[in-house]
């Protein structure tokens, strides 16, 4: 791997690197997994309210391939309701340890029921019970009520598998653009944007 973060203008730039944004994403994610103290797979997910206001929160990336970027959540949460109205999203990774940012724009579609079942089954029992008990994004009068709902779920599924709630699933973001950003001294950063062209991706350097 080249060192993208060298301080001189003589070093490789983003556009000298991989021509494929998925490959470059994979390289950067691998490096982030080594250098970030926690949750290298955390990404900001921007949706929109029905009246066009931005709406932002962090989710965890749970899968990526050429079909897109997968995260899991409650489909009746605020984000889920917003996505049902408007599937256009932005994703943002910021790895402070690497002084890097990746922006992705795209469209969500639901993952298959089978894919969601598979991922749900891989989660810890307590996380599965939490998903059953949590009406994500709805008002919660006090924590005692939540605790009670978790206990009820524990009793209900004692000695059994916890089934995936119908409203708990995943979304896949199919990218329509990527932008990679690498910090350079004096704010002379290296930036490039990839957009689809024919059957490939074409890159454009951007002023920092
Ligand atoms: C590091 C981090 C990772 C998170 N990962 C997820 C996730 O994968 N899925 C999820 O539903 N919420 C996740 N959350 C919580 C969300 O940020 C958010 O509070 C929640 O999904 C409700 O968002 P909404 O009301 O906009 O739907 C995470 C929060 C943080 C800080
Ligand atoms: C509410 C919620 N749901 C889902 C997730 C996804 O991660 P995991 O499946 O590893 O719990 C997170 C991660 N923080 C979360 O906070």
Automatic annotation (TrEMBL):
<dbReference type="Pfam" id="PF10590">
    <property type="entry name" value="PNP_phzG_C"/>
</dbReference>
<feature type="domain" description="Pyridoxine 5'-phosphate oxidase dimerisation C-terminal">
    <location>
        <begin position="168"/>
        <end position="208"/>
    </location>
</feature>
<dbReference type="InterPro" id="IPR019576">
    <property type="entry name" value="Pyridoxamine_oxidase_dimer_C"/>
</dbReference>
<feature type="binding site">
    <location>
        <begin position="72"/>
        <end position="73"/>
    </location>
    <ligand>
        <name>FMN</name>
    </ligand>
</feature>
<comment type="pathway">
    <text>Cofactor metabolism; pyridoxal 5'-phosphate salvage; pyridoxal 5'-phosphate from pyridoxamine 5'-phosphate: step 1/1.</text>
</comment>
<feature type="binding site">
    <location>
        <position position="78"/>
    </location>
    <ligand>
        <name>FMN</name>
    </ligand>
</feature>
<comment type="function">
    <text>Catalyzes the oxidation of either pyridoxine 5'-phosphate (PNP) or pyridoxamine 5'-phosphate (PMP) into pyridoxal 5'-phosphate (PLP).</text>
</comment>
<feature type="binding site">
    <location>
        <begin position="187"/>
        <end position="189"/>
    </location>
    <ligand>
        <name>substrate</name>
    </ligand>
</feature>
<feature type="binding site">
    <location>
        <position position="119"/>
    </location>
    <ligand>
        <name>substrate</name>
    </ligand>
</feature>
<feature type="binding site">
    <location>
        <position position="127"/>
    </location>
    <ligand>
        <name>substrate</name>
    </ligand>
</feature>
<comment type="pathway">
    <text>Cofactor metabolism; pyridoxal 5'-phosphate salvage; pyridoxal 5'-phosphate from pyridoxine 5'-phosphate: step 1/1.</text>
</comment>
<dbReference type="InterPro" id="IPR011576">
    <property type="entry name" value="Pyridox_Oxase_N"/>
</dbReference>
<dbReference type="GO" id="GO:0004733">
    <property type="term" value="F:pyridoxamine phosphate oxidase activity"/>
</dbReference>
<comment type="similarity">
    <text>Belongs to the pyridoxamine 5'-phosphate oxidase family.</text>
</comment>
<dbReference type="InterPro" id="IPR000659">
    <property type="entry name" value="Pyridox_Oxase"/>
</dbReference>
<dbReference type="InterPro" id="IPR019740">
    <property type="entry name" value="Pyridox_Oxase_CS"/>
</dbReference>
<keyword id="KW-0664">Pyridoxine biosynthesis</keyword>
<feature type="binding site">
    <location>
        <position position="191"/>
    </location>
    <ligand>
        <name>FMN</name>
    </ligand>
</feature>
<feature type="binding site">
    <location>
        <position position="123"/>
    </location>
    <ligand>
        <name>substrate</name>
    </ligand>
</feature>
<dbReference type="InterPro" id="IPR012349">
    <property type="entry name" value="Split_barrel_FMN-bd"/>
</dbReference>
<keyword id="KW-0285">Flavoprotein</keyword>
<feature type="binding site">
    <location>
        <position position="79"/>
    </location>
    <ligand>
        <name>FMN</name>
    </ligand>
</feature>
<protein>
    <recommendedName>
        <fullName>Pyridoxine/pyridoxamine 5'-phosphate oxidase</fullName>
        <ecNumber>1.4.3.5</ecNumber>
    </recommendedName>
</protein>
<dbReference type="Pfam" id="PF01243">
    <property type="entry name" value="PNPOx_N"/>
</dbReference>
<feature type="domain" description="Pyridoxamine 5'-phosphate oxidase N-terminal">
    <location>
        <begin position="34"/>
        <end position="155"/>
    </location>
</feature>
<feature type="binding site">
    <location>
        <position position="181"/>
    </location>
    <ligand>
        <name>FMN</name>
    </ligand>
</feature>
<feature type="binding site">
    <location>
        <position position="101"/>
    </location>
    <ligand>
        <name>FMN</name>
    </ligand>
</feature>
<keyword id="KW-0560">Oxidoreductase</keyword>
<feature type="binding site">
    <location>
        <begin position="136"/>
        <end position="137"/>
    </location>
    <ligand>
        <name>FMN</name>
    </ligand>
</feature>
<comment type="subunit">
    <text>Homodimer.</text>
</comment>
<keyword id="KW-0288">FMN</keyword>
<feature type="binding site">
    <location>
        <position position="62"/>
    </location>
    <ligand>
        <name>substrate</name>
    </ligand>
</feature>
<feature type="binding site">
    <location>
        <begin position="57"/>
        <end position="62"/>
    </location>
    <ligand>
        <name>FMN</name>
    </ligand>
</feature>
